Amino acid sequence: MNLDERLRDTAEEIRAAAGNTPVPSLDHRAPAHRHHARRVGVIAAAGVLAVGGLAMLFNERSSSSPDRPAATQPAETVTTSIQPVDDLADAQARWDQAAVPGYYLRMDGEIDSIGADVELLVDGDSVKSLNGSPDHEALTVNGLFDLLEEVADSDVDSAVVSFDESLGYPTRIRVATDSADLDLTLRDFERFERPQGCRSERGSPTDLDAEPAEWLLYGQYTRWSDTAGCPVRVDVISQYDGPEHCGWQGVDFLTVGRPIGTSFKDDENTADTYVWDPDDRLADVDDIDRGRHIDITELPPTATDTGYRLDGVELWLDNDNRDVAYQVDGSDVKVLVRDAPRRLLCE
Amino acid sequence: MSSLDGLDSPTDVDASVESFERFAQREFRPLIGLAYALCGDRSVAPELAQEALLATFTKWETVRHLDKPEAWVRRVLINRATSTVRRRIVEAGALVRLSSRPDVVPMSEPSAETEWLWSAVRSLPRRQRQVVALHYVERLTLDEIAATLEISKASANTHLRRARATLSRRINKEDQQ
Lengths: 347, 177
Hints:
The structure holds two protein chains of two kinds.
Chain A: H1 3-19, H2 31-39, H3 46-52, H4 86-98, E1 102-111, E2 114-123, E3 126-129, H5 141-152, E4 158-163, E5 170-176, E6 181-191, H6 213-218, E7 221-222, E8 237-241, E9 252-257, E10 271-276, E11 292-295, E12 303-310, E13 313-318, E14 324-329, E15 332-338
Antiparallel strand pairs in A: 1-2, 1-6, 2-3, 4-5, 5-6, 7-8, 8-9, 9-10, 10-15, 11-15, 12-13, 13-14, 14-15
Chain B: H1 20-39, H2 44-58, H3 60-63, H4 69-82, H5 84-100, H6 112-122, H7 126-137, H8 142-149, H9 153-176
């Protein structure tokens, strides 16, 4: 098939795909509303263009916008000092030099008159939304830098940008063109880095790259290892301290996938959670003894070593009795009691 | 009732001149195809089509009396799809809207062959990709392309010829690899 035929055929496919798109509602974007929004952040940048060509990016300085009555509008920041576009290059250089392997960010503001609340976890090439917001590359730091590069080389009405002094990522971006506006504030930025593990088979219990990144972001885990000393994924075995806000400090929660060695990240119902509570902080929940020690000679014969270790402590399970787990440390054995699913949930 | 009803011109419509509603209903989907050809993003394409129609609506009193209002709206769309800053903001807005408004539906997914070939088209110089999109997706003649882009017919022809030559070279190179 020659080029002309290929272009015709594929164009036909594009027309067909477009033809299946339903005609949407347009009434949420009435012109008056958009014109109002378009006023936000509009700063006379013509002078900037005339003087500096690309010098449209500059740091925020506090002053009142002449466009906006102070009594009815929140204080706007307007550039009073034009910094060269080197600000962008410097910021990007800082960002590149930092070589951040991953990060969490939260941004809010308006994109084209629509309220935006974005919460993303960027983990290498993976972008994941944590709040149902879009998980698009365009909303990552690299995507924002791409946007700013184009802003610097374009005919936008105005652009006000500030950058983090240390890592260089944008902390505030306001861009206005004659047809679209963007006003975003990056409020929370947190570096994210996966722990180093052993070279492991993909999907195996020690393949730390397969761990759910957001678990690592939110949770503080005590990490178990296998017999070779390789750290084990927290969605295979996770141990964590009880939250202080529930008064459960000192309580250990141990969750293991069932069968042991399998991940429970997709279905927590396939896991068992065991509790160790030597100080009886869960007395309000029930009167189960969760602080019992036994001697190794008292272990039931059906209990077996799982091969997982924590600072020399062995994890034993009993296939005939899923209600208990054992942490064997020499001759001393801690008996952890299984908790009913969700019963001990601390909100 | 479509909400496009609410966007009809505020003044009485001359019976001999098409209403904005009918115009928008007729042009929306073809504009999506053109937008996709130019920007390559299935979510952004309907947004660009809406943007172009919205801009048309605000000037409908003038535009509706033009010989070819459809050429005007295409020029608006082409300008917006070509401005990368505008497009990126529209794109980000589209993403936000898609997450909050289930009635904004992206275009269905074209085949890998289509995506690959039109990605190559989008890497052509600006005028060349515009001419290719108008010629193949919109099926416009050289005269109509010239009128839409406000260039000469000879210029449109030159852009189309150069675009085909470049694309042929790329395809041959790809086939050899």
